[in-house]
Design a protein that fits this description.
The protein has about 425 residues and is an alpha/beta fold. About 40% of the residues lie in helices and about 15% in strands. The protein has helices at about 10-15, 45-50, 65-80, 90-100, 115-125, 140-145, 170-180, 190-195, 240-245, 255-275, 280-290, 295-315, 335-340, 360-370, 400-405, 420-430; strands spanning about 80-85, 105-110, 130-135, 150-155, 185, 205-210, 220-225, 320-325, 345-350, 375, 385, 410-415. Helix 4 crosses helix 10 (about 255-275), helix 12 (about 295-315) packs parallel to helix 16 and helix 14 packs across helix 16. The longest helix has 23 residues, at about 255-275. It is globular.
């Protein structure tokens, strides 16, 4: 039954009247398809879709029409061939790398990563029997030395959170490809507006869409984008998930069924999202689409404000160092000119000037004095927010890991928002007076 008959009873009418599945309404905005499941016209259609022999929607854990719009837009913006939207940025990192590592795989990762990614790789993945080697992202020989026969991926952030180191993507991509593995780039901080990793040799991009893509701190979401540049078929034995026929897919391989453009994201969705369950809700997909529509406008303002705030902090006597690529003395300034010609992102860190006083006490005094700027465990928000990485976002890391990531007890991360730059600066000025 697709709609209630005129003579149907009350309970039947309240469930079915007024709606026929598949009816187009021609809305100008992508609608929120707030449904957990989808009707099939026949059992044969259901069978073919479940066997992945026919495209279409089955259940919103695997795919949803609103989510599909978000995936297609981000794939186009990143220059990719396909995307998989998931419940969070952490889910995007986890599922993209799990799909690559398979059983007993090894990943080479930059030491300069968001703390949650370090925890995932260094703790949870090790529990799964997967191994990781962390290297200084600027040590190209370190990347080479870390490669093993079991290595299946390189992973780094295009602009590291929180110290804003700019990765030499081209150089690291060349080393990854020499080793026969893809380079996965977390492009959350840069966004595809400032930097497209595909243009410099990267193969897969992940995003925490919670951040700049959504832009308003309202909705969690993550996206995995296959850039279509890595030829998995060159060494198919490394990627059994793509090339070994599986009973779940009608005893054909995903590569055979979906080809180079869709095999990897189909693996992410059909196996890992389907089995582990980190699905993106239709409403969150809608919210992220709304944010994505103004990404260039917002990021341009973020960049402009961040440059002004970084210059102010660099000149302030209570600040010891500012980690923003626009600063003349920043070691990644020249690299930023190559990779970030539209400007450096608005997420960076600074440290208070040295003092004999307890560092945490000084940092706490400054942060607690802020009035407009908020203390929040997030970045990429319309509002300016700060965090203390050593005790918040990176608090599980060992002292050696913190040092490798360039984080000290005096490091304050700032994500510069869309307020008037003068107001952000005034708030920092009055708070820093307490340092």
């Amino acid at each position: 039954m697709t709609q209630a008959e005129p003579t149907a009873g009350f309970a039947t009418t309240q469930l079915h009247a007024g709606y026929v599945p598949g009816t187009p309404e021609f809305t100008v905005l992508p609608p929120v398809y707030q449904s957990s499941a989808y009707a099939f016209s026949s059992l044969t259609e259901a069978r073919e879709k479940f066997a992945l022999r026919e495209k279409g929607y089955i259940y919103s854990r695997n795919n949803n029409p609103t989510q599909a719009v978000l995936e297609q837009r981000l794939a186009r913006l990143e220059g990719g061939v396909a995307a998989a939207a998931v419940a969070s940025g952490q889910a995007a990192v986890a599922l993209a790398t799990l799909a690559l590592l398979g059983r007993g795989g090894h990943i080479v990762a930059a030491s300069q990563l968001y703390g949650g990614t370090v925890d995932l790789f260094d703790d949870t993945f090790r529990d799964f029997g997967l191994d990781v080697t962390f290297v200084d992202q600027d040590d190209l020989d370190g990347w080479r030395r870390a490669v093993r026969p079991s290595t299946r991926a390189f992973f780094a952030e295009s602009v590291a959170n929180p110290i804003a180191q700019v990765l030499d993507i081209s150089a690291v991509a060349d080393i990854a490809h020499e080793a026969g593995v893809p380079l996965v780039i977390d492009n959350t901080v840069a966004t595809p507006f400032l930097l497209r990793p595909r243009d410099f040799g990267a193969d897969i991009v992940v995003h925490s869409a919670t951040k700049f893509i959504g832009g308003h701190g309202s909705s969690l979401g993550g996206v995995v984008v296959d850039l279509g540049t890595f030829d998995f078929s060159a060494e198919p034995e490394k990627w059994p998930g793509l090339f070994v026929p599986h009973w779940r897919y009608g005893d054909v391989s995903l590569w055979e069924a979906f080809g180079r453009e869709r095999a990897f994201t189909t693996l992410v969705k059909s196996k890992f999202v389907g089995d582990l369950g980190p699905a993106l809700s239709p409403f969150n997909a809608f919210q992220l689409i709304q944010g994505l529509e103004t990404l260039d406008l917002r990021v341009s303002r973020h960049v402009e404000n961040a440059k002004a705030v970084a210059a102010f902090l660099d000149a302030h006597p209570s600040v010891g160092v500012v980690f923003h690529p626009s600063i003349e003395t920043n070691p990644w300034r020249a690299r930023a000119e190559t990779y970030l010609p539209k400007g450096s992102p608005s997420v960076f860190a600074f440290e208070l000037a040295p003092s004999d006083e307890d560092t945490f006490d000084r940092v706490e005094r400054v942060i607690d004095a802020l009035r407009t700027i908020r203390l929040v465990a997030n970045i990429g928000d319309a509002r300016t927010i700060v965090a203390h990485p050593a005790s918040m976002t990176h608090n599980h890391m060992t002292p050696d890991q913190l040092a490798a990531a360039g984080i000290s007890q005096g490091t304050i991360r700032i994500s510069v928002g869309l307020e008037e730059a003068a107001d952000i600066i005034a708030d920092l000025d009055q708070a820093l007076a307490r340092a």
